[in-house]
């Protein structure tokens, strides 16, 4: 299976680019984040014309996640058990209920349980959104523990934009991010807890060391200056991680007019297909 994850930063703005890339890259399953559209606005027909089934959850111009698969989609689940919500009106009202945002969708594709995840940004270390982010990851971790307890041989892929650079090698300047989100001790501990629960960053063995990034801000010429972050991951359960054969970040898709600020992360599972050149 050739599995990819990509924060496309608006599927309607980048539809042609995404569908063309799927064909060129021979992708079996793509986890998509930040679709920025409602379900009725999602361009499912274009994916279907390209040979992919697709499932999506989205409520507005914010967030939104999807899975596109040409190897089947079964047992679709929108949100994971206990997924926290966020009270957008928390600063002005004590009566509003937290909203479970469109940040997680799961489906089984050719025996692999694929989750497309868009972890909350956090905004700042003192913002309520930061607490929400940590609670969200903790709830995901608890689910991961439960899934592996129920079936230690389960093949699970936690794919998406985690909005965390887990080590200093994963960011162009640790000093620049001092006192900012994405590199704080609390966020890194939350990420490490998911890994400790049994999930492996399957790309890292194939791309060790600093300078391997998946995101470059649009501002300050971050991409041409190679000032990026590695915040997009596929974390695999033990049974699936054992099948990892190759991995790459497709930096070419960060280039050119109309590119997302993220690049796709591609993982090749099992040894029955050619690995990357």
**H/E element string?**
EHEHEEEEEHEHEEHEE
Q: Find the CATH superfamily.
A: Endonuclease/exonuclease/phosphatase
CATH fold-level topology: Deoxyribonuclease I, Chain A
Low-pLDDT regions: 272-277
Distance between the amino and carboxyl termini: 17 Å
- Label the CATH architecture: 4-Layer Sandwich
Question: Tell me, what's the shape?
Answer: globular
Q: Provide the spatial order of strands within the biggest beta sheet.
A: 3-4-2-1-12-11
Strand content: 15-25%
When the domains are counted, the total is: 1
β-strand number: 12
Helical run tally = 5
Q: Averaging pLDDT over every residue, what do you get?
A: 94
Largest sheet: 6 strands, mixed
What is the name of the CATH class? Answer: Alpha Beta
Class per helix and strand makeup: alpha+beta
Radius of gyration: 18 Å
Describe this structure in words.
- The relative contact order is 0.15.
- This protein has helices at 15-25, 44-49, 128-150, 185-196, 238-241, and strands spanning 2-7, 29-33, 53-57, 65-69, 74-78, 104-109, 112-118, 156-161, 200-201, 232-236, 244-249, 265-269.
- With 277 residues, the protein is an alpha+beta fold.
- The chain is globular, with a radius of gyration of 18 Å.
- Helix 3 packs parallel to helix 4.
- The protein contains five helices and twelve strands.
- The protein has a single domain (2-269), classed as Endonuclease/exonuclease/phosphatase (Deoxyribonuclease I, Chain A).
- Helices cover 20% and strands 23% of the residues.
């Amino acid at each position: 299976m050739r599995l990819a994850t990509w924060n496309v930063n608006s599927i309607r703005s980048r539809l042609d680019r995404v569908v063309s890339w799927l064909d060129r890259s021979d992708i079996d399953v793509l986890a998509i984040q930040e679709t920025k559209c409602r379900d009725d606005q999602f361009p499912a027909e274009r994916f279907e014309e390209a040979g992919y089934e697709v499932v999506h959850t989205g409520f507005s111009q914010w967030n939104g996640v999807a899975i596109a698969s040409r190897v089947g989609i079964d047992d679709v689940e929108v949100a994971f058990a206990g997924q926290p919500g966020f009270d957008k009106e928390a600063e002005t009202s004590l009566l509003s209920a937290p909203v479970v945002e469109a940040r997680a969708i799961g489906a089984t594709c050719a025996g692999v349980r694929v989750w497309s995840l868009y972890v909350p940004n956090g905004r700042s270390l003192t913002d309520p959104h930061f607490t929400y982010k940590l609670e969200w990851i903790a709830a995901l971790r608890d689910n991961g523990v439960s899934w592996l307890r129920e079936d230690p041989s389960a093949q699970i892929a936690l794919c998406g934009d985690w909005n965390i650079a887990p080590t200093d090698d994963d960011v162009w300047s640790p000093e620049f991010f001092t006192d900012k989100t994405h590199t704080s001790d609390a966020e890194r501990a939350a990420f490490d807890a998911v890994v400790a629960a049994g999930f492996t960053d399957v790309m890292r063995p194939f791309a060790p060391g600093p300078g391997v990034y998946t995101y470059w801000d649009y501002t300050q010429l971050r991409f041409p200056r190679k000032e990026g972050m590695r915040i997009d991951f596929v974390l695999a359960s033990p049974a699936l991680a054992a099948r990892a054969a190759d991995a790459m970040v497709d930096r070419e898709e960060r280039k050119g007019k109309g590119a997302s600020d993220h690049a796709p992360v591609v993982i090749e599972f099992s040894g029955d297909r050619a690995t990357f050149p």
